[in-house]
Amino acid sequence: MVSVRPPVIWLPVSVLVVTGTDTDVGKTVTIAAIATLAAAAGRRVAVLKPAQTGVGPDEPGDLAEVVRLAGPVTTREIRRYPDPLAPLTASRRAGLPPVGTPEVAAEISALHADHDLVLVEGAGGLLVRFDENGGTLADAAWAVAAPVLLVARAGLGTLNAVALTAEVLERRGLDCIGVVVGRWPADPDLAARCNLTDLPEVAGAPLLGVLPDGLAGLSGDKFRDVARETLSPWLDGEFDPDSFTARHTAAS
Fold first, then answer.
1. CB atoms within 10 A of CB 64
2. pTM for the model
3. Which among 222, 212, 234 is positioned nearest to 147, based on CA atoms?
4. Is the distance from CB of 180 to CB of 152 less than 8 angstroms?
5. C-alpha span between 91 and 165 (Å, rounded)
6. Nearest 10 degrees: CA dihedral of 176, 12, 228, 250?
């Protein structure tokens, strides 16, 4: 088991890649929470979504949700596919060009030129393929030497997914700066409470936030206030993982 280590960087980082252990774990809300706090601190923030799937040409996607929650940050989407599938599969079905890793890296570099923080949101997990060459979000992170933030589920089954993702990051020479629980339930069960201790251990990186389920229902100042309460100072917030963990594990 990899021992827990502190993050090696303090925001503001210039680029942060955000991946999840799966779909629907709260990546978009996590990115919006980081973005709103960074913007409130006076940073110029950009959010890049290399591949948006499951959304029609005129429908709002994840980036529209980020703007609704975080306010007017810069957003960029490289490619959009209508079917709710992995990017490569969705591009094949739509007959549209896939997103290549060099294209993602170039877009990150372009945004980095005039922004203080570029947040990159993957589609699904770390190794979901973008193109026929097997390019993934991990390859894009490596290409620009960006650290990775891992968003995970709270409950049973999350430890294996986090451990697998962390092992891939380590093998590829990528730095996992921490773990955020993307959708913390209002009434956490025993597994969720115990995972507060176990998640940092299996990730080999600290717990940097626990965002409540339903946070996406807020916006503006209310969203920013809750983001500040539930993200660590490493992410410009005020969340204390030790006290939060102690409070919830005491009920176990």
1. 15
2. 0.92
3. 234
4. yes
5. 25
6. 30
pLDDT in tens, 18-69: 999 988 899 999 999 999 999 999 999 999 999 999 998 889 999 999 999 9
- 242 and 208 in contact (C-beta within 8 Å)? no
Residue tagged active-site, from 27, 49, 129, 228: 49
Give CB contacts under 8 A, 24+ apart, made by 86-89. Answer: 86/53, 86/123, 86/124, 86/128, 86/129, 87/50, 87/51, 87/53, 87/123, 87/128, 87/129, 87/130, 88/129, 88/130, 88/131, 88/132
The question of whether 49 is a catalytic residue gets the answer yes
Which CATH superfamily is 15-249 part of? P-loop containing nucleotide triphosphate hydrolases (3.40.50.300)
